[in-house]
Design goal:
The complex is a heterodimer of chains A (425) and B (487). By secondary structure, chain A is an alpha+beta fold. Chain A contains eight helices and 20 strands. In chain A, the strands form four sheets. Chain A has a six-stranded antiparallel beta sheet with strand order 3-2-1-4-5-6. Chain A has a five-stranded mixed barrel with strand order 7-14-16-17-20. The termini of chain A are far apart. In chain B, the strands form four sheets. In chain B, strands 1, 2, 3, 4, 5, 6 and 7 form a seven-stranded mixed beta sheet that branches. In chain B, strands 9, 10, 11, 14, 20, 21 and 22 form a seven-stranded mixed beta sheet that branches. A five-stranded mixed β-barrel of chain B has the order 8-15-16-18-23. Chain B has eleven helices and 23 strands. The chains are: A alpha+beta (425), B alpha+beta (487). Chains A and B meet through strand 2, strand 3, helix 1, strand 4 and strand 6 of A and strand 2, strand 3, strand 5, strand 7 and strand 8 of B.
Chain lengths: 425, 487
């Protein structure tokens, strides 16, 4: 059984005027019943005693709909939790923020963007928000875990006018479990402005294969796709392009990817997984070798392996495989050195769409960025696609940056990929 | 299944009002009191959104029911407007005390002394566009399992290479009620059914997956016109076809969009950019362009919340306004925007019935319902014949748009090369990118074969998901950038 409860508070302003203030607390309960190998899940937010009694009875009854599944069931071993005190999950002061201070932060952030460049003509809004959460997981094997956490973020989207009524927009944000670790509002606003302004005059480019430098804003998308492809669910469904590749050197020697729930204070840090198994660090790639799939108890049983303690669980569903802090480990090059190494290629800053096929590895997405000429960022490009196959793409990683910024639970530095098809004109 | 669910003999707006009145004691006196608390610090307007939502789901895999799921949520969202500022709070606890507290929290957006007078509420009635005999959630699971098994068998029988079939059957019944400080009380009963089949085809070491599905605001009667076997075979056929897929072309080429699902192009290229919030803030590339040409003369684009039983249809929107059929673009000229209350007031127009929200935890904003293009004169055959070298795009997995720039993408999961006017080889999955007004100006032929896509689309905006519909005749776009790997 999983209980989730939390509070949320957020303020958005636009052109210095308050747009929205949202404040609420909520709670919900999820129940998974496994009866003779038959599985049912239910959720409810009605905590009155009569409703709860009925809820449990209904869930047990619901299990009769399911067929017997030999692999269903609670974990047999591995239960435990890392001492939350060592993980820094909760900012005890986060709820001290009042509405006026939050509005002030958002206003400073947006104003810094307008002040940074006179070509910034409009704003999509700036916002500050925080949330706190409590999770309680108990099961009939005797596990009981409680975890409290917090998160907060400050963001702004800014626009500059371009030809034909187009507006070039971009955003920046800072996020952390602790308010004190956020980037300053002025820095967030300035970065959003710089990113928007450098897109003015963006054009299409001729279709051809070129080297591509991935900005951290997009390299983390790539790492996320690798982790999803390494999910035990795609393994037992025989639907991952990583099938039969464990232990093989399939990526560049610079490719080191880990999923690490134990990093103190980071957004994906947790003390136990979605089934109550103690958190542990897992390698996905070591120097280009695909180490293992990420598994929860079900997918481990389906494939005759052991759980990697990678279960995630929402209140309404069954546990499934997910990541905690997913990292492409930094390399030794600076982003500047990486860009300087390219004489003619694309600096990719934006991906659009969902054109990925994890069964085949085919990758095709809309994109925008800047063209690199003779090692320098030269002019903005947009309305292009980038396409390739993930198998080739991970082999073609030629440089990995030393820049890593823990603003989300999936992070990666700047990388250089030998070639991708860029389609434009 | 026994009951925390409402036991109601009739499913309608009236049953929604009755549910909140009898089960939670929300009568007119309570509504009036909550609205007065919400306006207690001088807001200009307040509304209350009550929601009771029950879901049920069956996940079927390896020819077995893997998981039976379901649940109930109920709650109240309170919104207070002060000028263009919104205060919002919600609660899952429908006790009077918690509801009062939510109203008081939302009221904090204002700090004025001029209290608003008492509110008189009058019940209004909306249309009835998805009346059904009985929601499927009330039907014994054996009937649903029979449907699922028929699909499973049909997919496996389609081709020996189909080795895995995953099927999901998801149902929802939602009762909603909106009370506003300008005195309106609207309620609705909103059923939803969604059926999905995913197939894996394995030939040696080559594996391909494909999905098909559908549904709408319907009960089991959905399957009368949509036999589960047909959905399953279509998913299986796509997976098998992909086994023969060649590298897709890369570059700026003509694309023929087939009737139905291609409406996703309109949703991305036009629909989002015409949501009035972006235009009120002038952050859309369509801002200040009403009355101007934004597409070829062949294009008439409509957002229509009134199509009976369609996934995107609503009797009333989540601000209590009756849904409408709104012409967005007529013969290429921009007519207007999709409005919610705040934007309609800003533009001095009537609300267009597009104020929607994901749940009581979210405030409403302008959203699409069913978005489609009216048919033209050409036959699909002559459209394909007119293309020497291009792509024929038939099925899609989704899309996205950058509102400010107007750049949009959509991902083709079933596509074919067109060579010398003939549809030839299937291609691998590929992304297409265009720019809204530019791409729409390159619509050079429109077919006479309009089709509404079967109901499987969900639209995301600012973290809120709502069900939508799309539709399209066969269309030729004379040039757009296709993101394959073959020059």
């Amino acid at each position: 059984m999983l209980i989730g409860a939390g509070t949320e508070f957020s303020v958005t302003i636009r052109k210095q005027e308050v747009e929205n203030i949202v404040e609420a607390s909520s709670r919900a309960l999820g129940l998974r019943v496994i009866k003779g190998g038959r599985v049912a899940v239910s959720y409810s937010s009605d905590f009155t005693p009569d409703a709860l009694t009925q809820f449990v009875a209904d869930t047990v009854e619901r299990a009769a709909i399911s067929d017997v599944d030999e692999a269903a069931g609670l974990p047999d071993e591995g239960y435990g939790q890392v001492d939350p005190a060592t993980l820094n999950l909760l900012d005890p002061d986060i709820e001290d923020m009042d509405g006026d201070r939050a509005i002030e932060l958002a206003r400073r952030c947006e104003q810094a963007g307008f002040d940074a460049d006179s070509r910034i003509s409009n704003s999509g809004g700036a916002g500050y928000g925080y949330n706190t959460g409590l999770r309680v997981l108990v099961n009939t094997r005797g596990f009981s875990g409680i975890s409290r956490g917090s998160g907060c973020s400050l963001s702004v989207e800014l626009m500059a006018d371009d030809a034909d009524g187009k507006k070039q927009n971009d955003y920046w944000y800072t996020a952390d479990r602790f308010f004190k670790n956020l980037e300053s509002p002025e820095s967030v606003g300035k970065k959003a402005a710089e990113r928007a302004v450098r897109k003015i005059g963006a054009r299409k480019v001729p279709t051809r294969e070129v080297p591509v430098v991935w900005d951290p804003m997009v390299s983390r998308t790539l790492i996320g796709l690798l982790a999803r492809s390494a999910s035990g669910e795609l393994l037992y469904r025989r639907s991952s392009f990583f099938l039969d590749m464990e232990g093989q050197q399939i990526g560049s020697p610079l490719l080191n990817v880990v999923d690490d729930p134990l990093m103190p204070g980071k957004l994906g840090t947790r003390s136990f997984d979605g089934e109550g198994l103690i958190s542990k660090k897992n390698e996905l790639f070591r120097e280009g070798t695909f180490v293992q799939f990420l598994l929860d108890t079900y997918t481990a049983r389906k494939t005759g392996r052991a759980s990697t303690h990678s279960a995630v669980r929402g209140v309404g569903g069954t546990p499934s495989v997910g990541t905690s802090n997913l990292l492409l480990l930094p390399g030794s090059s600076t982003p500047g050195e990486i860009i300087a190494s390219v004489s003619d290629g694309l600096y990719l800053t934006e991906l659009l769409g969902f054109g990925d096929n994890l069964t085949t590895g085919d990758f095709s997405r809309g994109a925008a960025g800047l063209w690199i000429e003779n090692g320098q960022l030269s002019y903005p490009v947009s309305e292009i696609n980038v396409s390739g196959n993930l198998k080739d793409m991970i082999r073609d990683i030629e440089m990995v940056g030393n820049d890593i910024d823990y603003r989300s639970s999936t992070v990666a530095p700047t990388i250089l990929m030998k070639r991708l098809m860029v389609s434009g004109l | 299944m026994g009951s925390p669910s409402p036991q109601l003999s009739d499913y309608s707006a009236e049953s929604a009002r009755a549910l909140f009145r009898t089960r939670y004691g929300v009568d007119e006196r309570v509504l009036t009191e909550l609205l007065e608390v919400a306006l207690g610090r001088g807001g200009d307007y307040a509304d209350l959104y009550f929601e009771h939502r029950q879901t049920s789901s069956i996940a079927f895999e390896e020819s077995k029911v893997k998981t039976a799921g379901g649940g109930i949520t109920q709650g109240l969202g309170v919104r207070v407007l002060s000028g263009d500022s919104t205060g919002y709070a919600y609660t899952e606890d429908l006790s009077l005390e918690s509801m009062r507290q939510a109203a008081a929290t939302a009221a904090k957006i204002c700090d004025r002394q001029d209290k608003v007078g008492p509110v008189d509420i009058a019940e209004a009635t909306g249309p009835d566009r998805y009346r059904i005999q009985k929601p499927s959630i009330e039907i014994p699971s054996a009937e649903k399992l029979a449907i699922i098994r028929r699909a499973d068998e049909a997919a496996r029988a389609y081709d020996p290479s189909i080795t895995r079939v995953n099927i999901s059957f998801v149902e929802e019944v939602k009762h909603v009620m909106v009370a506003t400080s300008d005195g309106r009380l609207m309620a609705d009963f909103q059923p939803m059914l969604r059926f999905n089949v995913q197939c894996l085809s394995e030939v040696g070491n080559s594996r391909q997956t494909a999905v098909d599905g559908g549904g709408g605001r319907l009960g089991m009667e959905y399957f009368v016109d949509h036999p589960p076997e047909a959905i399953a075979r279509n998913a299986a056929r796509q997976a098998v076809t992909l086994q023969k897929g060649v590298e897709a072309p890369a570059g700026y080429i003509p694309v023929v969009l087939s009737a139905g699902e291609s409406g996703i192009l309109l949703h991305e290229a036009v629909g989002h950019g015409l949501e009035a919030d972006f235009n009120r803030k002038k952050t859309s590339n369509y801002s200040d362009r009403v009355g101007q040409p934004v597409a070829s003369e062949l294009c008439t684009v409509i957002d229509d919340g009134t199509i009976n039983h369609s996934r995107g249809t609503i009797n009333v929107d989540d601000e209590g306004n009756v849904a409408k059929k709104n012409v967005l673009i007529e013969n290429g000229v921009l007519q207007g925007y999709l409005q919610d209350r705040i934007s309609a007031k800003h533009f001095g127009v009537e609300a267009s019935g597009n104020g929607r929200r994901e749940s009581f935890r979210h405030y409403p904003m302008p959203r699409m319902t069913n978005t489609y293009m009216l048919p033209g004169e050409s036959t699909p055959e002559e459209i394909i014949k007119s293309v020497k070298k291009g792509l024929y795009a038939k099925a899609f997995s989704g899309g996205q748009v950058n509102i400010s720039k107007g750049d949009f993408v959509f991902s083709v999961t079933e596509g074919y090369l067109i060579e010398d006017g003939e549809v030839t080889h299937p291609v691998k999955n590929v992304n297409i990118i265009g720019n809204g007004p530019d791409t729409l100006s390159k619509v050079t032929m429109v077919g006479n074969d309009f089709e509404l896509s079967d109901g499987r689309w969900t639209c995301g905006k600012d973290g809120q998901s709502v069900p939508v519909g799309v539709g399209m005749p066969t269309v030729l776009v004379s040039g757009i950038t296709v993101g394959g790997t073959q020059r």
